[in-house]
Design goal:
The complex is a heterodimer of chains A (about 800) and B (about 240).
Chain A lengths: L9 H12 L1 H38 L5 E8 L2 H7 L4 E15 L5 E8 L12 E5 L7 E5 H7 L6 E5 L5 E11 L6 H4 L1 E6 L1 H6 L6 E8 L6 H16 L6 E5 L13 H36 L1 H9 L4 H42 L10 H26 L4 H6 L11 H8 L5 H10 L3 H36 L6 E4 L6 H9 L6 E13 L9 E6 L10 E4 L9 E5 H6 L8 E6 L2 E11 L7 E5 H8 L7 E5 L8 H17 L8 E2 H44 L1 H9 L4 H43 L9 H28 L2 H5 L3
Parallel strand pairs in A: 3-8, 5-7, 13-18, 15-17
Antiparallel strand pairs in A: 1-9, 1-10, 2-3, 2-6, 2-9, 4-7, 5-8, 6-7, 11-19, 11-20, 12-13, 12-16, 12-19, 14-17, 15-18, 16-17
Helix pairs in contact in A: 1-10, 2-8, 2-10, 2-11, 2-20, 8-9, 8-11, 8-15, 8-20, 8-22, 10-11, 14-22, 15-20, 15-22, 15-23, 20-22, 20-23, 22-23
Chain B lengths: L17 E12 L2 E13 L4 E5 L6 H9 L6 E6 L2 E2 L5 H11 E4 L11 H12 L4 H14 L15 H12 L6 E5 L7 H16 L3 E6 L2 H5 L3 E6 L2 E7 L1
Parallel strand pairs in B: 3-8, 3-9, 6-7, 7-8
Antiparallel strand pairs in B: 1-2, 1-4, 4-5, 9-10
Helix pairs in contact in B: 3-4, 3-5, 4-5
Classes of the chains: A alpha+beta (about 800), B alpha/beta (about 240).
């Protein structure tokens, strides 16, 4: 059988052999391209998967536009709301705060949901995973993450404790997937679903307390949806004799119809996208340097090729094809790597946000993007060095190699010439560093940006930590407990102070209210809080004005969260508050920082009592073991347990106590994941920077092979040669570190601001990270040394004869 | 040694093949202006074996770089078979050189990644004077001419300096150029190999090629029919016979 012989033109044979013959350099270029393209693929594919799966599943279940919290009603009320033309669907729901015993014998919070019709839920539809879709009497369906968290499965028995402390055994009939509730792992609260008859059997009255509605028009428009809720309240619910306590768009600062974490996810993905683009640009800089290295190394060969008849256009094509071959190889690595990374991010997101992944595949538009960038960026980056490299006159390319002066002298060269106190080898290293200024500039740009991003990530971490600490000022208690309506404050405080170890007990009261505008309209719902003016369970950070005083009358302090919806309010302004039918004017005396609890207005307990008529009543009790210092987590847990037992026994509460530690742990959990992903991105950028320096050091040594031969001929030992090379690498690393430190000041501010805005919807309290700076210094020193080691070793190994017959 | 393949590429002209008219070349360096060539006038006929001899810095290498188009004169004119080489663009001079002048360097300048066969094929690849199907065969014939057929698939680093130089000569003949220009071809060779290389040049001249050889070696220079002496950028003697 005759084999088909494909004979390539010799110029292509040369290119292929050059690629294989310089495997290390070829690998460097391939990795440079692959890292950036993989990052872009990873982020864009992950984004596609999240949009397709998470948001798709969310939309598919008919998400509620609005939740109305209503006084006890029967399901016909929801039907009446649904009859409004502004409402597409309305469904009643009963939610009861209970507790469930997990497999470890611990009580965990459990939100029991009773639906009017399990056969056809209309809003926030959950899907069956296993077992029965409809629970019978004395049975419960569990959300799948809740089931995992509680350590139970379909068929098991679950012990549930109701607010009146009675316990009941329910059979877990089925496991469902509810994408509309925050996962158990995030909130430490389980979600279960029972029939109303089961609730009745558990001692509850058969009524509903929520209406979940889907707007008919402009479903995603916040103002329109809120208006629909208000219409439902004013036209149907309140005329029917029921009270609406709160109108809420589900989620965390979300818009209607959006997943509760959509803003945070989108913001975070945007940040990753920017970092991905940065990785691509950095790899472009790396390619410029590496291709410049290649063209310099090939200078003599290019001269020979031109001497034997090659035109410049032919040479340009040859070296572009060289780059394209490497780019193609890089794509072969980047495409699967990007997919793998996307899979990792998607798995992490799916686990964290509780959604199902369907297909893990690179979407066509992302594939196009990766291939497009993978070919375009290297081509554009390589074009300049290739054009420059093929422009060298033939005589210079062939004959003028070896020890010679480099670029035009600049002021830095004159400065370096003045340094005479250092030893000649060190002087040689310093002057070598600045010999090729353009190349040095590219290398420094790559390393500096990588360093700036690395330090910025750590500054972001420090800023997030600071942000969280700022929030912590507003939950400066060891334990707190919600009280039964009508509880006397002094009774609660007296009872709390009986708990061993507790020195501070404060009863706070709160109500839902609004601000009345001059045109008669109302603000969004806010929380009016009455508290002791000298509270020791909160440390407010004032942005303007002052805190409350004992002798204040009609004075309030608002929080920065309120200013999001009421930006015109300033210290000194008078605002009219309304709670129920009560209205009153107050003067704003201070504004506290944002503390992510929603819009709040603080006033003294006395003012609160006068305003609401609820004199001396408290809705929550907050405890501290000691003033000035929070107790250890175990102590907090003990106090909380004692508080809960005593108050439940005394009939003052039916709720579960919480501690600052558990609230904080739950709150900070997502940030750790975010920071891990950011650190991975920063590591990618560091790798690109390190690759850049490695390539440049290799080239620098190659170009000075003759010079090194001369050094060896005049007595330099291997150690001396090593020193010259490694010091040069270190100098480049240290210069980039200094520049990176300066650039990281604004870049850290921007990155931290973007992350905090995306995740917390807040303004950043920026903190620069000295630890990040020091860590990068250590890394850049290591990069400088290791990047120089291989070239130094190669240089030291060459014999004098070999290098001097370099010609 | 096997006879040279019959070549058709000998320029039939009664006039001088190479003409240099008042060629001047100056270099700017950190140390000031250096006059490498000071108004050279030179004519070389076809099928001549010419040696150009001079000390280091005399301008002999610069002169041959002018003839090959590798370097450009600061002023003056260079005509090679009526082509005004000094007026050609960079792209055109490369193509012209590939077709007209075979260059042999002192340090061989073979591409290290390619085999001898591939090195010899390379000029044919750039100039497209021979059909692709014939190139390997022609390259092998040229290697056979210089006694390297058995080493065709070896890389330059696997061969001695003498063999590398012979391979470089085979490469220079790839496009059958009428002129062979060589700078110190025997500078890195032992006397026996040097003798072999010069013998090859003599054979090429017999075939009608014009060989111009720069050397600092008087004994080598004597092998040429016409011997030009250059000093301080000027021709100081020009002898034939």
């Amino acid at each position: 059988m005759k084999l088909l012989r494909i004979e390539l033109k010799t110029r292509w044979v040369k290119i292929l052999k050059d690629i294989w013959g310089n495997r290390q350099r070829s690998l460097l270029v391939v990795l440079s391209i692959a890292v950036g393209i993989a990052a872009v693929g990873m982020i864009n594919t992950a984004r596609h998967i999240v949009e397709r799966d998470l948001y798709g599943q969310f939309r598919a279940g008919n998400p509620a536009s609005l939740i109305l919290y209503v006084s006890p009603f029967q399901k016909q009320l929801a039907g009446a709301v649904q009859n409004m033309r502004e409402v597409e669907t309305a469904e009643a729901r009963r939610v009861v705060a209970a507790q469930a015993l997990n497999s470890k014998g611990e009580w965990k919070d459990l939100a029991l949901n009773a639906l009017p019709n399990f056969n056809a839920p209309k809003v926030d539809q959950f899907r069956l995973e296993s077992g029965a879709a409809v629970p019978a009497g004395r049975e419960i369906l569990l959300e799948r993450r809740s089931a995992d968290g509680l350590g139970v499965k379909a068929g098991d028995m679950l012990t549930v404790k109701m607010p009146d402390e009675r316990t009941y055994r329910l059979r877990v009939a089925g496991i469902v997937h509810d994408i509309y509730v925050m996962p158990f792992s995030l909130m430490d609260e389980a979600t279960g679903y029972v029939r109303m008859e089961t609730l009745q059997w558990m001692g509850e009255q058969p009524y509903y307390n929520q209406i979940r509605l889907v707007a008919a028009q402009q479903k995603t428009d916040r103002a329109s949806v809120l208006k629909t809720g208000e219409l439902a309240r004013d036209r149907v619910i309140e005329p029917a004799g029921y009270q609406v306590f709160r109108i809420q768009i589900p989620g965390v600062n979300s818009d209607p119809g959006q997943h509760w974490a959509q803003n945070q996810i989108n913001g975070f993905l945007l940040i990753l996208q920017v970092m991905g683009i940065l990785a691509v640009l950095l790899s472009g800089g790396l390619i410029i340097n590496t291709i410049s290295a290649m063209m310099t190394q090939q200078a003599r060969q290019i001269g020979i090729l031109r001497a034997i008849g090659a035109r410049r256009s032919q040479l340009i094509t040859m070296y572009l094809v060289n780059v394209w071959i490497l780019a193609a190889a890089a794509l072969l690595i980047a495409l699967p790597l990007g997919l793998l990374g996307a899979w990792g991010i998607a798995e992490l997101a799916a686990s964290f946000l509780n959604f199902n992944l369907s297909e893990i595949a690179v979407p066509f538009h992302v594939l196009l993007l990766q291939v497009g960038l993978g070919l375009t960026i290297p081509t554009l980056a390589a074009l300049y060095p290739i054009l420059e490299g093929t422009r060298t006159p033939v005589v210079q390319a062939i004959y003028h190699q070896g020890v010679r002066g480099e670029e035009q002298e600049r002021p830095i060269d004159h400065l370096l010439m003045k340094l005479k106190a250092l030893s000649p080898p060190v002087l040689l290293s310093l002057r070598n560093t600045f010999r090729k200024k353009t190349r040095l500039a590219f290398t420094l740009a790559t390393l500096t940006l990588a360093g700036a991003m690395f330090i910025s990530v750590f500054s972001t971490r420090a800023s997030l930590t600071e942000q969280i600490l700022q929030v912590g000022r507003y939950i400066a208690f060891d334990a707190s407990l919600s009280l039964k309506p009508g509880t006397q404050r002094q009774t609660a405080e007296r009872e709390a102070l009986r708990i061993p170890g507790v020195q501070i007990a404060e009863g706070w009261a709160s109500s839902s209210g609004v601000i009345l505008h001059s045109d008669g309209s109302e603000s969004k719902a806010l929380e009016v809080v009455g508290l002791p003016h000298d509270t020791q369970t909160m440390d407010p950070a004032l942005q303007a004005g002052r805190w409350l005083r004992a002798n204040d009358t009609a004075a309030v302090v608002i929080n920065d969260d309120l200013l999001e919806s009421e930006p015109d309010i300033q210290v000194g302004d008078r605002i009219q508050l309304k709670i129920g039918e009560a209205k009153r004017w107050f003067t704003v005396v201070g504004i506290t920082s944002k503390h992510l609890s929603g819009a709040r207005v603080y006033m003294t307990l006395e003012e609160y009592g006068k305003f609401t008529g609820r004199m001396n009543q408290a809705d929550v009790i907050r405890l501290r073991a000691e003033p000035g210092k929070l107790a250890a987590p175990q102590v907090q847990a003990q106090i909380a347990a004692e508080l809960e037992t005593r108050f439940n026994n005394a009939g003052l509460s039916e709720q579960t106590a919480s501690t600052q530690n558990t609230l904080f742990s739950t709150f900070t959990r997502p940030f750790n994941i975010i920071l891990i992903v950011l650190i991975i991105m920063a590591t990618i950028l560091s790798i690109v920077g390190g690759l850049g320096l490695t390539g440049v050091m290799g080239l620098n040594i190659l170009e000075r092979t003759r010079e090194i031969g001369v050094l060896r001929a005049i007595g330099a030992t291997n150690a001396s040669v090593f020193q010259v090379v490694i010091v040069e690498g270190l100098v480049v690393g240290l210069i980039s570190w200094a520049l990176g430190a300066v650039v990281s000041l604004p870049s850290g501010f921007l990155l931290a601001g973007a992350v905090v805005k995306a995740v917390l919807q807040a303004t950043v309290h920026y903190r620069y990270s000295p630890w990040g700076l020091l860590l990068w210094l250590a890394i850049v020193v290591l990069i400088g040394v290791f990047a120089s080691l291989t070239p130094a070793r190669s240089a030291a190994r060459l014999t004098v004869r070999e290098v001097l017959e370099y010609e | 040694m096997i006879a040279l393949p019959q070549t058709a590429n000998t320029l039939q002209t009664d006039t001088q093949l190479i003409r240099l008219v008042q060629v001047v070349k100056t270099f700017q360096s950190g140390a000031g202006v250096f006059h490498a060539l000071r108004g050279i006038n030179l004519e070389i006929a076809q099928a001549q074996f010419v040696s150009i001899m001079g000390k280091s810095g005399s301008g002999k290498s610069t002169l041959i770089n002018m003839l090959t188009g590798i370097d450009r004169p600061t002023s003056g004119e260079i005509y090679i078979a009526d082509t005004a080489v000094h007026r050609l663009s960079d792209s055109d001079v490369a193509r012209w050189r590939g077709e007209t002048v075979g260059v042999v360097f002192q340090f061989f300048q073979l591409l290290p990644a390619l085999s001898l066969l591939e090195n010899v094929r390379l000029p044919m690849d750039f100039c497209d004077l021979f059909p692709r199907a014939e190139r390997s065969e022609r390259a092998m014939a040229l290697l056979e001419l210089v006694g390297l057929a058995d080493e065709a698939h070896k890389k330059p680093a696997q061969l001695s300096g003498g063999k590398q130089q012979c391979a470089a000569i085979a490469r220079a003949l790839a496009n059958d150029p009428p002129i062979i220009a060589t700078d110190e071809p025997t500078g890195n060779l032992d006397s026996a190999t040097a003798n072999q290389v010069i013998g090859l040049f003599e054979k090429l001249v017999e075939q009608g090629k014009t060989v111009i050889m720069v050397t600092h070696d008087a004994e080598v220079a004597q092998r040429a029919v016409r011997r030009i002496q250059i000093a301080d950028g000027q021709i100081v003697s020009d002898r034939s016979g």
